[in-house]
Write a structure and sequence with these properties.
Layout lengths: L2 E7 L1 H7 L6 E8 L3 H4 L15 H12 L2 H8 L5 E5 L7 E3 L5 E3 L2 H6 L10 E3 L4 H20 L6 E5 L5 E2 L13 H18 L3 E4 L6 E2 L14 H16 L5
Parallel strand pairs: 1-2, 1-3, 3-7, 7-9, 8-10
Antiparallel strand pairs: 4-5, 4-6
Helix pairs in contact: 1-8
Length: about 250
């Protein structure tokens, strides 16, 4: 039976989509958009030139417009399953002079758009009390909106602690600095626990599958999982999309 998916997250959710068969269609993919930014107001402060790829332009443009909720509302009636992962929360957010927030994505940092407000914005890193306060409030509002859209039972949240080694047993380069990945894993676990407390389904990647792909097309990284992990995620998507409850 044909199933329409929507992804809000990162390659952690997008890559396993390729493991699914032709019965699955991707309605939309919202990436590089922290929940804090997504639930913030759109900003007009960061106009600038186009980036190198259409994906980069879509991602950055969507983040600046905070287009997650409008996109979800547009497709809500068609969505059979919404898949969410928290990987892009790793990026932190930037508080702008207008009081709004944007995600500290590589697209934003490489765009040069912050130059016009140099010295007037502030970075808020994950694994800080300030970030948690902002994130918890945004998560409450997001999942409340999903419930109002009738998507509570059509949402799958992926808990995917980052890999420490590749499929070849080699250490994975850390995201930013040694030790940060461990802190982020613990932080993501707290985020997933909060989402679960809101009544949403969270599936956590088993420990033995937390392995990175050494020759991933975008390079080895803690969140570029190997084939077995991608297949596990694809299976969770299939089960959730079927509407079969899993203990």
């Amino acid at each position: 039976m044909h199933k329409n998916l929507m992804i809000y997250g990162s390659c952690v959710s997008r890559d396993p989509f390729e493991e699914l068969g032709s019965d699955y269609a991707l309605l939309g993919y919202v990436a590089r958009q922290s929940m804090i930014s997504a639930l913030s107001r759109p900003t007009e402060l960061l106009n600038g030139e186009a980036l190198a790829s259409s994906f980069q332009n879509r991602s950055l443009g969507g983040d600046l417009k905070s287009n997650l909720l409008p996109t979800l509302r547009r497709y809500a009636a068609e969505i059979d399953l919404l898949v969410i992962d928290l990987t892009d929360e790793r990026l932190g957010v930037i508080r702008l002079p207008d009081g709004n927030y944007v995600t500290r994505s590589s697209e934003l940092m490489h765009s040069g758009r912050l130059a016009g407000i140099a010295g007037r914005y502030r970075l808020i890193e994950p694994v800080t009390e300030e970030h948690w306060t902002l994130w918890e409030s945004a998560a409450n509002r997001l999942f409340g909106a999903l419930t109002a859209m009738g998507l509570r039972d059509k949402t799958l949240v992926l808990g995917t602690p980052w890999a420490q080694v590749t499929e070849k047993g080699e250490p994975v380069p850390p995201f930013r600095d040694p030790g940060k990945d461990v802190e982020l894993n613990a932080y993501f676990a707290e985020c997933c626990a909060h989402i679960k407390s809101l009544g949403y389904t969270v599936r956590t990647l088993p420990e033995d599958l937390r392995v990175a792909q050494a020759d991933h097309k975008w390079g080895a990284a803690p969140y570029h999982f190997g084939a077995v992990a991608r297949q596990w995620i694809a299976r969770q998507i299939e089960v959730a999309a079927s509407g079969v409850a899993v203990a």
